[in-house]
């Protein structure tokens, strides 16, 4: 599915699910946002970034979603309405599609809290057939890569730390071992570098 396929029908509202940098920096106007999760996917630092958080020589690592029936991924869904629908999709097509290599898919989003109805939401996913896809590696290797990379949007470490902070503050009941083990590994690298100076 392409974002333009959604705007062809001229929907009056759309939910967009963010699970990486969108949770703290959507950079588009929206009506409201809600913390929650999607099922059947796990968040992994398996996608390369040669623009926002790295470059061609040292690509950064950012998150994508990997299908896994037993997993869920927490994040934020943003409801866009009226002209916000087309504006947000136009912006995200460049940010996530052109520069990030992500494709779109509709998923069921479950808002946090009791008696909250689920909604269909658009999500951006980087797949293994993408040229920027890096695939799995140990937490230590990913942590080292994140600790040393920087792109046009800033240090890759900032991306990691902001995502970990979001999870601790907004989803304290969720244990994201992948995220937190990479955070620990990256901070260990940084502490060694600082201690050697």
Automatic annotation (TrEMBL):
Catalyses:
glutathione = L-cysteinylglycine + 5-oxo-L-proline
UniProt GO cellular component terms: cytosol; Golgi apparatus
Its EC number is: 4.3.2.7
Q: Keywords, A to Z?
A: Apoptosis, Cytoplasm, Golgi apparatus, Lyase, Neurogenesis, Notch signaling pathway, Unfolded protein response
Q: Where in the cell is it found?
A: Cytoplasm, Cytosol; Golgi apparatus, trans-Golgi network
Query: What SUPFAM superfamilies does the record tag this protein with?
Result: Gamma-glutamyl cyclotransferase-like
Checking InterPro entries in the record gives: ChaC, GGCT-like, GGCT-like_sf
Similarity comment: family membership: Belongs to the gamma-glutamylcyclotransferase family. ChaC subfamily.
Q: Which PANTHER family match?
A: CATION TRANSPORT PROTEIN CHAC-RELATED (PTHR12192), GLUTATHIONE-SPECIFIC GAMMA-GLUTAMYLCYCLOTRANSFERASE 1 (PTHR12192:SF26)
Where does the secretion signal sit in this chain?
none
Which GO MF term does the entry hold, naming one? Answer: glutathione specific gamma-glutamylcyclotransferase activity
What name has this protein been given in UniProt?
Gamma-glutamylcyclotransferase
Which terms under GO biological process does the entry name? apoptotic process; glutathione catabolic process; nervous system development; Notch signaling pathway; response to unfolded protein
As for what it does, the entry says:
Catalyzes the cleavage of glutathione into 5-oxo-L-proline and a Cys-Gly dipeptide. Acts specifically on glutathione, but not on other gamma-glutamyl peptides. Glutathione depletion is an important factor for apoptosis initiation and execution. Acts as a pro-apoptotic component of the unfolded protein response pathway by mediating the pro-apoptotic effects of the ATF4-ATF3-DDIT3/CHOP cascade.
Which regions form coiled coils?
none
């Amino acid at each position: 599915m392409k974002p333009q396929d959604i705007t062809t029908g001229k929907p009056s509202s759309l939910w967009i699910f963010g699970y990486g940098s969108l949770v703290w920096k959507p950079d588009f106007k929206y009506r409201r946002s809600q913390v929650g999760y999607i099922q059947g996917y796990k968040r992994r630092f398996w996608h390369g970034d040669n623009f926002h958080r790295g470059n061609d020589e040292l690509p950064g690592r950012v998150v994508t979603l990997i299908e896994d029936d037993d997993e869920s991924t927490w994040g934020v869904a943003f409801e866009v309405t009226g002209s916000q629908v087309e504006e947000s999709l136009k912006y995200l097509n460049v940010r996530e599609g052109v520069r990030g290599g992500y494709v779109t898919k509709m998923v069921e989003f479950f808002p946090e809290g009791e008696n909250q109805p689920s909604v269909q939401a658009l999500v951006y996913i980087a797949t293994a057939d993408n040229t920027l896809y890096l695939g799995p590696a140990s937490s230590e290797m990913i942590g080292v890569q994140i600790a040393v990379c920087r792109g046009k949007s800033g240090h890759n470490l900032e991306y990691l730390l902001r995502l970990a902070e979001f999870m601790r503050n907004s989803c304290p009941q969720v244990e994201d071992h992948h995220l937190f083990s990479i955070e620990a590994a990256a901070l260990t690298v940084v502490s060694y570098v600082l201690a050697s100076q």
